[in-house]
Request: fold
Amino acid sequence: MRWLAAPLLLAAALLTPDPAGSRDLDAAVGKALFRRIWTVAGASNRQSDGLGPLFNARACTSCHEGAGGGRMADGAGLVLRFDDDPAYGRQLQTAAAPGHEPEGRLEVRWQPAPRRLADGSTVALRRPVPQLVTLDAAVESGRGSLRLAPGLAGLGLVEQALAEAGEPGGFGLKAAHASLAQPVTEALLLDLGLSTTDHPEPWGDCTEAAPTCRQGPHGSGDGEGGVELAPGIVQALLAYLRFLPPPAPSGPLDPDGLHLFASLGCNGCHRPELGGLQPYSDFQAHDLGAGLASDERDAGLGRRWRTAPLWGLGRRLMEGRPLLHDGRARDAEEAILWHDGAARTASAGYAALPEAERARLLAFLERL
Ligand code: HEC
Ligand code: HEC
Reply:
């Protein structure tokens, strides 16, 4: 079995049934798996994990460092998604196993989009335009939807809170996944090229247009349901994610700031309270307008994004992590000014505030 090559701890945990008390062990195993650097399937099919044939990274931590979100500067955690493209499938894979070619390279070109506020000051917003550089150096500009990896802390508790409250809400940047297990098996499929019982296809995201990619060596074995990763691996990853506490606030709550936040209507989507948690999100998707759309032609799903949870925002800003689904915003103000569609009133309300009030709201956000 594939995981015999992994540390003994892992093997031990997967062989033990699941008595109460083994949850910490599961989480520890999951943490090791989350950091694990997976290996490409060899021709011999033994001692290998089945990474690829196409992949973006070798480890979850490559994009979610410390279970956090991606960065923009070095492109870590940034991917290009498609709506089932005949050539690229659902995601552009920028790396490949030996004997295969990556689908291309991802670059970002920045387009200025300055915005004037009511008091006459200007904010230098900028929009990322994905550049897909293919192997023969051709550039496809502006195609696909850029996505930056979100932080993962606290999501297990959110899953539990939503279930207990019987509320809708979900995971992934479009809130398309009802459970946390779905984005995990999707990450294994699209980001690492590792098959699971949820996504048993060993060729991952290789399309029918690439038959050699589909027929390449892979790590699927007999006796494991024909998949590269046993269900215990997904369970351990989930145990780790469920064990992660929510991000801690970086300062005391400012009641006047919260009042301002509410009076602008921010809390309609960024719910301060959810089942005893303070995620500042409803975990539902909303139309945020054409400027942020993944597909402007599609006024439905294309413009919809999940309310980004604001917990831990101060810490993220301090670490220089960019905001919004594609990392276009360098600070909270830029993020707010990109809000349009269902959040147009809130965003316009912010832009109309006098400077001191804007500063008050931003200071409030920086302490979340
Ligand atoms: C190549 C970069 C990359 C790698 C590697 C990666 N992720 Fe992600 N992850 C992303 C991106 C981008 C998203 C957002 C995708 C979307 O919803 O559009 C995401 C979303 C998620 C989500 C949903 C988070 C939420 O807020 O709802 C989970 C859970 C997750 N990843 C877990 C994992 C796990 C576990 C691994 C390793 C098996 C992993 N990821 C590897 C980039 C990556
Ligand atoms: C109609 C729902 C809605 C309203 C109202 C709304 N937001 Fe948002 N907010 C969102 C969504 C959806 C996103 C994610 C957009 C994206 O990823 O492109 C978001 C993202 C953000 C982010 C970026 C966070 C991150 O981690 O990327 C900040 C900051 C933010 N909102 C603050 C505010 C403030 C302040 C207000 C009030 C002035 C507000 N929002 C009103 C839905 C809303």
Notes: The radius of gyration is 21 Å. The first strand starts at residue 54 and ends at 55. Residues 23-35 form the longest helix (13 residues). The chain has two domains: 2-108+151-243, 246-366.
